[in-house]
Fold:
Amino acid sequence: MQEGMNRRSFLQLGVVAGATAMAPRWIRAQAAPAAQPHPSTGDAPIKATKLYDNLYLLQGTGGNMALQTGPEGNILIDSSYAPAVPRIREAIAAVSKDAPFVLINTHWHGDHTGGNEGMHAAGFTICAHQKTRERLSTTQTLKVFQRTFPPSPAGALPTVTFERELRMWHNGDSLDLVHIDPSHTDTDIYINFHKADVLHLGDTFFNGMYPVIDESTGGSIGGMIRASEMSLAMVSDSTKIIPGHGPLGSKSDLQKFHDMLSAIRDKMAALKAAGASEQEALAKNPTAEFDAAWGKGVLSKDVFAGTVYRTL
Structure:
Protein backbone atom coordinates (compact mmCIF):
# COMPACT_ATOMS: atom_id res chain seq x y z
CA MET A 1 0.00 0.00 0.00
CA GLN A 2 1.20 3.48 -0.76
CA GLU A 3 0.44 6.71 1.04
CA GLY A 4 -0.10 9.61 -1.33
CA MET A 5 0.92 13.00 0.03
CA ASN A 6 0.62 16.54 -1.19
CA ARG A 7 2.23 19.58 0.43
CA ARG A 8 -0.56 20.23 2.93
CA SER A 9 -0.88 16.64 4.17
CA PHE A 10 2.89 16.27 4.35
CA LEU A 11 3.40 19.33 6.52
CA GLN A 12 0.31 18.94 8.68
CA LEU A 13 0.46 15.23 9.35
CA GLY A 14 4.15 14.36 9.42
CA VAL A 15 3.08 10.74 9.36
CA VAL A 16 4.87 7.46 8.93
CA ALA A 17 3.67 5.90 5.68
CA GLY A 18 4.06 2.14 5.89
CA ALA A 19 3.04 -0.85 3.85
CA THR A 20 1.23 -2.47 6.74
CA ALA A 21 0.65 0.28 9.30
CA MET A 22 -0.25 3.93 8.80
CA ALA A 23 -0.15 5.12 12.43
CA PRO A 24 2.69 7.47 13.47
CA ARG A 25 5.75 5.80 14.99
CA TRP A 26 7.94 8.59 16.32
CA ILE A 27 11.43 7.87 17.53
CA ARG A 28 13.03 10.16 20.10
CA ALA A 29 16.75 10.76 20.39
CA GLN A 30 19.07 13.02 22.36
CA ALA A 31 21.27 15.50 20.59
CA ALA A 32 24.98 14.72 20.27
CA PRO A 33 27.92 16.12 18.30
CA ALA A 34 27.93 15.23 14.62
CA ALA A 35 30.77 13.23 13.08
CA GLN A 36 33.58 15.26 11.54
CA PRO A 37 33.40 15.52 7.71
CA HIS A 38 36.21 15.93 5.22
CA PRO A 39 37.87 19.32 5.91
CA SER A 40 37.61 20.56 2.29
CA THR A 41 33.86 20.14 1.91
CA GLY A 42 33.00 23.70 2.92
CA ASP A 43 35.06 25.13 0.07
CA ALA A 44 33.97 22.74 -2.68
CA PRO A 45 31.66 24.34 -5.26
CA ILE A 46 28.27 22.81 -5.96
CA LYS A 47 27.64 22.23 -9.67
CA ALA A 48 24.00 22.38 -10.82
CA THR A 49 23.00 20.49 -13.98
CA LYS A 50 19.47 20.89 -15.33
CA LEU A 51 17.85 17.52 -16.00
CA TYR A 52 14.25 18.66 -16.59
CA ASP A 53 12.25 21.90 -16.51
CA ASN A 54 12.40 22.13 -12.71
CA LEU A 55 14.79 19.33 -11.71
CA TYR A 56 18.53 19.65 -11.18
CA LEU A 57 21.47 17.41 -10.33
CA LEU A 58 23.66 19.02 -7.64
CA GLN A 59 27.22 17.70 -7.30
CA GLY A 60 29.90 18.60 -4.76
CA THR A 61 32.25 16.72 -2.45
CA GLY A 62 29.64 14.47 -0.84
CA GLY A 63 27.02 12.27 -2.44
CA ASN A 64 25.08 13.42 -5.49
CA MET A 65 22.03 15.53 -4.68
CA ALA A 66 18.92 16.47 -6.65
CA LEU A 67 16.69 19.54 -6.45
CA GLN A 68 13.10 19.90 -7.63
CA THR A 69 11.95 23.52 -7.70
CA GLY A 70 8.48 25.04 -7.93
CA PRO A 71 5.77 27.13 -6.29
CA GLU A 72 4.79 24.29 -3.96
CA GLY A 73 8.25 24.42 -2.41
CA ASN A 74 11.65 22.97 -3.19
CA ILE A 75 12.49 19.30 -2.68
CA LEU A 76 16.15 18.49 -2.00
CA ILE A 77 17.50 14.95 -2.10
CA ASP A 78 20.44 14.41 0.28
CA SER A 79 22.50 17.09 2.03
CA SER A 80 26.21 16.23 1.61
CA TYR A 81 28.46 17.12 4.59
CA ALA A 82 27.66 19.80 7.19
CA PRO A 83 30.30 22.32 5.98
CA ALA A 84 28.79 22.19 2.48
CA VAL A 85 25.46 23.68 3.62
CA PRO A 86 26.28 27.31 2.68
CA ARG A 87 27.33 26.21 -0.81
CA ILE A 88 24.21 24.06 -1.17
CA ARG A 89 22.02 27.01 -0.21
CA GLU A 90 23.86 29.21 -2.72
CA ALA A 91 23.33 26.63 -5.46
CA ILE A 92 19.62 26.43 -4.67
CA ALA A 93 19.26 30.22 -4.62
CA ALA A 94 20.94 30.46 -8.02
CA VAL A 95 18.17 28.44 -9.71
CA SER A 96 15.12 29.00 -7.48
CA LYS A 97 13.47 31.66 -5.34
CA ASP A 98 10.88 29.16 -4.10
CA ALA A 99 10.49 28.27 -0.43
CA PRO A 100 12.06 25.17 1.14
CA PHE A 101 9.76 22.18 1.45
CA VAL A 102 11.33 18.80 2.17
CA LEU A 103 14.80 17.22 2.32
CA ILE A 104 14.78 13.51 1.48
CA ASN A 105 17.66 11.29 2.64
CA THR A 106 18.48 8.28 0.45
CA HIS A 107 20.20 6.53 3.42
CA TRP A 108 22.00 7.25 6.70
CA HIS A 109 25.65 7.86 5.68
CA GLY A 110 27.17 11.22 6.59
CA ASP A 111 28.14 12.22 3.06
CA HIS A 112 24.39 12.23 2.33
CA THR A 113 23.00 13.40 5.71
CA GLY A 114 25.74 15.58 7.22
CA GLY A 115 24.00 18.76 6.07
CA ASN A 116 20.64 17.75 7.54
CA GLU A 117 20.80 20.04 10.56
CA GLY A 118 21.76 23.08 8.49
CA MET A 119 19.15 22.47 5.83
CA HIS A 120 16.50 21.87 8.51
CA ALA A 121 17.45 25.23 10.02
CA ALA A 122 16.97 26.72 6.54
CA GLY A 123 13.36 25.52 6.53
CA PHE A 124 13.41 21.98 5.13
CA THR A 125 11.42 19.17 6.76
CA ILE A 126 13.50 15.96 6.70
CA CYS A 127 12.01 12.75 5.30
CA ALA A 128 13.65 9.31 5.12
CA HIS A 129 13.13 5.63 5.67
CA GLN A 130 12.35 4.68 9.27
CA LYS A 131 15.69 2.86 9.62
CA THR A 132 17.58 5.98 8.56
CA ARG A 133 16.17 7.79 11.59
CA GLU A 134 17.00 4.80 13.76
CA ARG A 135 20.60 4.71 12.49
CA LEU A 136 21.09 8.46 12.86
CA SER A 137 19.64 8.33 16.37
CA THR A 138 22.22 5.85 17.65
CA THR A 139 25.98 5.23 17.49
CA GLN A 140 27.00 3.51 14.25
CA THR A 141 30.24 1.89 13.08
CA LEU A 142 31.20 1.87 9.41
CA LYS A 143 33.47 -1.18 9.22
CA VAL A 144 34.79 -0.60 5.73
CA PHE A 145 36.33 2.74 6.83
CA GLN A 146 36.92 1.71 10.46
CA ARG A 147 35.01 4.74 11.75
CA THR A 148 32.41 5.14 14.48
CA PHE A 149 29.77 7.87 14.33
CA PRO A 150 27.89 9.20 17.39
CA PRO A 151 24.15 9.95 17.29
CA SER A 152 23.21 12.95 15.15
CA PRO A 153 21.83 16.18 16.64
CA ALA A 154 18.06 16.29 17.08
CA GLY A 155 17.76 18.87 14.30
CA ALA A 156 19.38 16.47 11.83
CA LEU A 157 16.89 13.65 12.36
CA PRO A 158 14.08 12.90 9.89
CA THR A 159 10.69 13.84 11.32
CA VAL A 160 8.67 12.19 8.55
CA THR A 161 9.45 8.51 7.96
CA PHE A 162 7.98 5.54 6.14
CA GLU A 163 8.52 1.79 6.09
CA ARG A 164 8.06 0.59 2.51
CA GLU A 165 6.93 3.25 0.10
CA LEU A 166 5.60 6.77 -0.08
CA ARG A 167 4.08 8.65 -3.02
CA MET A 168 4.14 12.44 -3.28
CA TRP A 169 2.53 14.76 -5.83
CA HIS A 170 4.54 17.96 -5.99
CA ASN A 171 5.33 20.77 -8.41
CA GLY A 172 3.60 19.05 -11.32
CA ASP A 173 5.20 15.61 -10.88
CA SER A 174 4.60 12.45 -8.89
CA LEU A 175 7.43 10.96 -6.87
CA ASP A 176 7.77 7.42 -5.57
CA LEU A 177 10.02 6.88 -2.55
CA VAL A 178 10.65 3.13 -2.15
CA HIS A 179 12.75 1.16 0.33
CA ILE A 180 15.33 -1.28 -1.08
CA ASP A 181 16.23 -3.71 1.71
CA PRO A 182 18.96 -4.70 2.10
CA SER A 183 21.38 -3.35 -0.49
CA HIS A 184 24.11 -0.78 0.19
CA THR A 185 22.73 -0.56 3.76
CA ASP A 186 19.41 -1.49 5.37
CA THR A 187 18.22 2.13 5.04
CA ASP A 188 18.35 2.76 1.27
CA ILE A 189 15.53 4.20 -0.80
CA TYR A 190 15.21 5.29 -4.41
CA ILE A 191 13.27 8.35 -5.58
CA ASN A 192 11.54 8.12 -8.96
CA PHE A 193 10.35 11.35 -10.62
CA HIS A 194 7.79 10.01 -13.09
CA LYS A 195 7.12 12.97 -15.40
CA ALA A 196 10.75 14.09 -15.44
CA ASP A 197 11.84 10.46 -16.02
CA VAL A 198 14.66 10.81 -13.48
CA LEU A 199 15.60 8.11 -10.96
CA HIS A 200 17.81 8.88 -7.95
CA LEU A 201 19.34 5.62 -6.70
CA GLY A 202 21.52 6.92 -3.91
CA ASP A 203 24.40 4.60 -3.07
CA THR A 204 22.75 1.53 -4.55
CA PHE A 205 24.49 2.75 -7.74
CA PHE A 206 28.10 3.93 -8.01
CA ASN A 207 28.69 4.97 -11.62
CA GLY A 208 32.16 3.97 -12.87
CA MET A 209 33.65 2.83 -9.56
CA TYR A 210 33.50 -0.06 -7.13
CA PRO A 211 30.72 0.61 -4.61
CA VAL A 212 30.94 0.86 -0.86
CA ILE A 213 28.92 -1.98 0.66
CA ASP A 214 28.22 -1.23 4.32
CA GLU A 215 28.13 -4.68 5.86
CA SER A 216 27.93 -3.07 9.33
CA THR A 217 24.37 -1.88 8.65
CA GLY A 218 23.00 -4.67 6.50
CA GLY A 219 24.65 -4.15 3.12
CA SER A 220 25.61 -7.13 0.96
CA ILE A 221 26.72 -7.95 -2.56
CA GLY A 222 23.51 -9.87 -3.14
CA GLY A 223 21.46 -6.90 -2.02
CA MET A 224 23.33 -4.58 -4.36
CA ILE A 225 22.69 -6.89 -7.29
CA ARG A 226 19.00 -7.20 -6.44
CA ALA A 227 18.75 -3.42 -6.19
CA SER A 228 20.27 -2.97 -9.64
CA GLU A 229 17.91 -5.60 -11.08
CA MET A 230 14.92 -3.80 -9.53
CA SER A 231 16.12 -0.48 -10.93
CA LEU A 232 16.80 -1.84 -14.41
CA ALA A 233 13.24 -3.13 -14.57
CA MET A 234 11.91 0.41 -14.01
CA VAL A 235 13.96 2.47 -16.44
CA SER A 236 14.01 3.06 -20.18
CA ASP A 237 16.82 4.11 -22.49
CA SER A 238 15.79 7.74 -21.97
CA THR A 239 15.75 7.68 -18.15
CA LYS A 240 18.33 9.86 -16.43
CA ILE A 241 19.78 7.94 -13.47
CA ILE A 242 21.44 9.75 -10.58
CA PRO A 243 23.99 7.57 -8.77
CA GLY A 244 25.10 8.19 -5.22
CA HIS A 245 28.57 8.85 -6.61
CA GLY A 246 29.95 9.35 -10.10
CA PRO A 247 28.53 11.07 -13.19
CA LEU A 248 24.89 11.10 -14.27
CA GLY A 249 24.08 7.64 -15.62
CA SER A 250 21.89 5.86 -18.13
CA LYS A 251 20.29 2.44 -18.34
CA SER A 252 23.40 1.22 -20.15
CA ASP A 253 25.62 2.45 -17.31
CA LEU A 254 23.43 0.74 -14.73
CA GLN A 255 23.50 -2.48 -16.74
CA LYS A 256 27.31 -2.40 -16.78
CA PHE A 257 27.32 -1.86 -13.02
CA HIS A 258 24.99 -4.83 -12.53
CA ASP A 259 27.06 -7.06 -14.80
CA MET A 260 30.29 -6.14 -13.01
CA LEU A 261 28.79 -6.88 -9.59
CA SER A 262 27.34 -10.19 -10.77
CA ALA A 263 30.58 -11.37 -12.39
CA ILE A 264 32.70 -10.60 -9.33
CA ARG A 265 30.07 -12.14 -7.03
CA ASP A 266 30.11 -15.35 -9.08
CA LYS A 267 33.91 -15.59 -9.10
CA MET A 268 34.18 -14.94 -5.38
CA ALA A 269 31.37 -17.39 -4.59
CA ALA A 270 33.14 -20.14 -6.52
CA LEU A 271 36.40 -19.49 -4.62
CA LYS A 272 34.61 -19.47 -1.27
CA ALA A 273 32.69 -22.66 -2.10
CA ALA A 274 36.01 -24.34 -2.96
CA GLY A 275 37.26 -23.60 0.55
CA ALA A 276 39.40 -20.51 -0.08
CA SER A 277 39.83 -18.13 2.85
CA GLU A 278 39.26 -14.43 2.28
CA GLN A 279 42.99 -13.79 1.83
CA GLU A 280 43.38 -16.80 -0.46
CA ALA A 281 40.46 -15.60 -2.56
CA LEU A 282 41.90 -12.08 -2.81
CA ALA A 283 45.23 -13.55 -3.95
CA LYS A 284 43.39 -14.97 -6.98
CA ASN A 285 42.55 -11.37 -8.01
CA PRO A 286 38.88 -12.00 -8.89
CA THR A 287 38.34 -8.35 -9.92
CA ALA A 288 41.23 -8.26 -12.43
CA GLU A 289 39.19 -7.81 -15.60
CA PHE A 290 37.27 -4.87 -14.10
CA ASP A 291 39.99 -2.98 -12.23
CA ALA A 292 40.95 -0.66 -15.10
CA ALA A 293 37.36 0.56 -15.55
CA TRP A 294 36.03 0.38 -11.98
CA GLY A 295 39.02 0.60 -9.66
CA LYS A 296 39.40 4.39 -9.51
CA GLY A 297 36.92 5.20 -6.74
CA VAL A 298 37.18 5.52 -2.97
CA LEU A 299 37.86 1.81 -2.40
CA SER A 300 40.80 -0.32 -3.44
CA LYS A 301 39.95 -3.46 -5.35
CA ASP A 302 40.93 -5.66 -2.40
CA VAL A 303 38.77 -3.76 0.08
CA PHE A 304 35.80 -4.09 -2.28
CA ALA A 305 36.50 -7.77 -3.03
CA GLY A 306 36.88 -8.53 0.67
CA THR A 307 33.45 -7.07 1.36
CA VAL A 308 32.01 -9.21 -1.45
CA TYR A 309 33.56 -12.32 0.11
CA ARG A 310 32.24 -11.58 3.60
CA THR A 311 28.70 -10.72 2.49
CA LEU A 312 28.08 -13.68 0.19
Residues 12-37 have pLDDT under 50 and may be disordered. The chain has one domain: 3-230+240-251. The domain at 3-230+240-251 is CATH 3.60.15.10 (Metallo-beta-lactamase; Chain A). The first strand starts at residue 3 and ends at 5.
